[in-house]
Amino acid sequence: MVDDTPPPVPGAVTGADAALADALDRLRARLRDVALPLDAPGAAQARADRRAALDQLDDYLLPRLRSAGAPLLVVVGGSTGAGKSTLVNSLLGERVSDPGVLRPTTRSPVLVHHPLDAGWFTGDRVLPGLARLAGDETSVDRRGEAGDPQAGPGAAAVRLVPSAALPRGLALLDAPDVDSVEEANRRLAAQLLAAADLWLFVTTAARYADAVPWDLLHTAAERHAQVALVVDRVDPGSEAAVEDLRRMLDANGLAGAPLFPLGEGVGADGLLPEEAVGPVAAWLSDLGGDAAARRAVAVATRDGVVDDLARRGLALAQAADDQVVAATRLRDAVARAYAEAAAQVGSATSDGAMLRGEVLARWQELVGTGDLLRSVERGVGRVRDAVVGFLRGRPAPAPVEQAIAHGLAAVVLDAADGAAERTHAAWRGDPSGAALLPDLGLSRSSATLRADVDREIRAWQADVLALVGEQGAQRRGTARALSFGVNALGVSLMVLAFASTGGLTGVEVGIAGGTAVVAQKLLEAVFGDDAVRRLTGEARERLEARVRGLLAGEAARYTAQLDALVVSGGEALRGAATAVEDAARGERAARTAAGRDGAGAGDGAAVGAPSGSTASLRGAHRWRASAGGTGPGRTPGAGGTWPGWTGGTAGPGLGPGDAVRADDPAADHAADRPRGGFWRRLLGREDRG
Ligand SMILES: Nc1nc2c(ncn2[C@@H]2O[C@H](COP(=O)(O)OP(=O)(O)OP(=O)(O)O)[C@@H](O)[C@H]2O)c(=O)[nH]1
Ligand SMILES: [Mg+2]
Predict the structure, then answer these.
(1) pTM for the full model?
(2) What distance in Å separates the CA atoms of residue 64 and residue 683, rounded to the nearest whole number?
(3) Domains in the chain, number
(4) Centroid of ligand 2 to alpha carbon of 104 (angstroms)
(5) Host domain of residue 263
(6) Which ligand is nearest to the CA of 101?
(7) How far is the CA of 154 from the centre of ligand 1 (A)?
(8) Which of 70, 344, 427, 459 has its CA 20 to 30 A from that of 402?
(9) Which of 545, 563, 581 is the last residue of a domain?
């Protein structure tokens, strides 16, 4: 588990920065909480966004906010084989990262820092999710979070390489290829770029328009990340590619990105010649030596990331709300289908449909030709005696009971099967539901339903017999009738229950050609009208309750899929994202006010090492010596200029020419360099004239 609260460090932030860090901490907690388990449209992207947002908070933003003095992290990214490792080695003049012929070469990122800056990188402050490798170590136990599939031996690690060739306050990270055939490489490269204060993007004259790098460059532009580009292998004749790339950058929101074309091939030592890397070296060395410039770059990238995270938080809140909507829609489909099933059973057991076929035949066997009805209607003797006499001579009522059980089971099973089919169809037609269906046999009723239905129907029939028995016990004079015919009376009540609609009984609705009339007369003769009405209602209610229970069990097979998921709305996340926006506004206002008060310089000085203690990267001196002229650093451009980055032709913020050509090239000294136009623009001092 990553410790979110590193120990206080020199230059640690307070005030508005701390409020922003707190707001981001809360956003992080909400992002962790938000669950997007349903495959609603856009959910896969939202999950990836959520992961990326958490990574960026952990790897970059929170550490950066809490360690105002951390060195500027320049991440060298780009296509495989573009020459990232070669560039890093060439800038340092030593092979810290293995370039190679086999792609991809760089799997473990290499982070080069000044020896005195080591403390910033050995701990958890930067990229806390990546283990550290020192020297020649090759395997790691990643300090991943519990349950993290990437944790464990062989997982991502970063190799730390101290180098005095690098200015203090500047770190170079050689990343894996962004378009790698290996997914882990691609993901790591994107994660590293997201943790960068500055992207140094390496491409080639042949591949500068490739889609994958441009996806990332678009992301950078969107986030206002600070970006510079290096174009390798610009042979004479391919200058047009550089011009085209410049146009693409301008047209895609990266007009301010410096562009460094490199034309030289690698030497026998595997390094690019000094004069080739000179412009990049000089530009980066200047940046390393200028605390205010470093701060400006770091803050510009950070602001973009904060805005982007708040935006992402809001979008993810919407995605979380969409999940709630999707879950509700799925639950509604289940509820609708099973309510319909219950209604279907309800009408099939009250409209007389049950009293046809087998039930009717067995019932007629039981009640015979109508002698009973006639004697009851004639009012001969005491009615109850007539019933007793009638019941004494009857066959057993078991076949009627069985026929009822059989018919009733068919009705319930049919309704349940229909509901399962409808639910399955509704879920299958819904992306969120479809993902929950495979391997679950949810297209039909559960395998145990038939047995469950049979059991419930038997239990209901027992209920009805018990009702009749209880009613007899309460009423004087029924003992004899019951002693002969509790089963016959029970069956009569079942029949009557199937012929009662909206409080009307069989006689009133004339159901099934008077089938129910005999049952009703028989029961009324024994118990009286009111009791029969009440008993019929009670028998129906018990049946309905048991059917409801069966259908609820069936419906639960679907809703359990949803219950197993945590689906919570995006309200808390939305609140946290809005709070980040507010805190960011506050922090920027405080920064502006501090700048007006002249406190900006002190602020800037808090970033990394103070000016004056810097080394220069390889080739920087050579470039500076020739800056503004036609020295070797500028070849092979015609007339000593690179068409791709000459500031005069393609608008503001164009590149190394701006950065390294001082206003007065004659006053060009490594230790005391005036700041280039690029940095002035970043710092908001547009005073070049
Ligand atoms: N001609 C020429 N060759 C180069 C240049 N830069 C790199 N190379 C060669 O291209 C090959 C790949 O270079 P690397 O530096 O390993 O490329 P990479 O971008 O680090 O590649 P991955 O780590 O696989 O992503 C090596 O053989 C280098 O010698 C260049 O500017 N010009
Ligand atoms: Mg490499």
Answers:
(1) 0.72
(2) 19
(3) 2
(4) 7
(5) 71-289+612-642+651-682
(6) 1
(7) 25
(8) 344
(9) 563
